[in-house]
Amino acid sequence: MASILEAGVQVGDTHMAARELFGSAQLQERIRVLADEIAGDYAERGSVHTVTVLNGSLHFSSALRLALAEANADLGATMTSDTIHLASYHGTGSTGEVKKISDLTHSVEGKHVLVIEDIIDTGKTLSVLVAELLAQRPASLAVAALLRKPEKLAVPAEELGKTVYVGFDIGPEFVIGYGLDYDGLYRDLSAIYALASVS
Ligand code: XMP
Ligand code: MG
Questions:
Q1: If pLDDT is split at 50, 70 and 90, which confidence band does 9 have?
Q2: Which pTM does this prediction carry?
């Protein structure tokens, strides 16, 4: 995606440079390793029910679920999946208020739930979702997040669930690509880029 790097991205009145953080091959490889680890942990539970948080997690979820099914064929044959659409971001900042655009189709009661999230920023979105899912009394609950911004975490870590699988920890910068957007754009780039002001 040399063109994005060259041209940069206009964010409101600010022109920002886009720096590649993770290329497509690097993302695929990390997701494969993550899937091996998760498949190992779920083998003894015997099943997994994924809850994908739309829209940002679309590509990560697809890649992770296919890799899970490849890592463990029995898990792949019994795996079930649902989606929930939440929104908390406007532009490049979290509003702190989590809106539900569309809900789950099935209750997670009694299921071994794996929440699939694109990024943990302040953690507010995930803490709201985790509380809501735990109220339905799943058999277990874990989270897989492709990215996490540890410096921006603003909720107690316990609120994010006991088990959190993370692809990569990153700095506080705003990122785009591989599902992550700026105002609806850049979701379908196969790499992830960090945006920085050009001074
Ligand atoms: P919180 O702060 O609730 O944010 O953890 C989580 C949700 O906000 C979105 N988000 C981002 N989207 N680039 C994006 O394109 C980012 O750097 C970013 N940080 C947070 C994302 O939807 C996530 O689920
Ligand atoms: Mg999201």
A1: confident
A2: 0.94
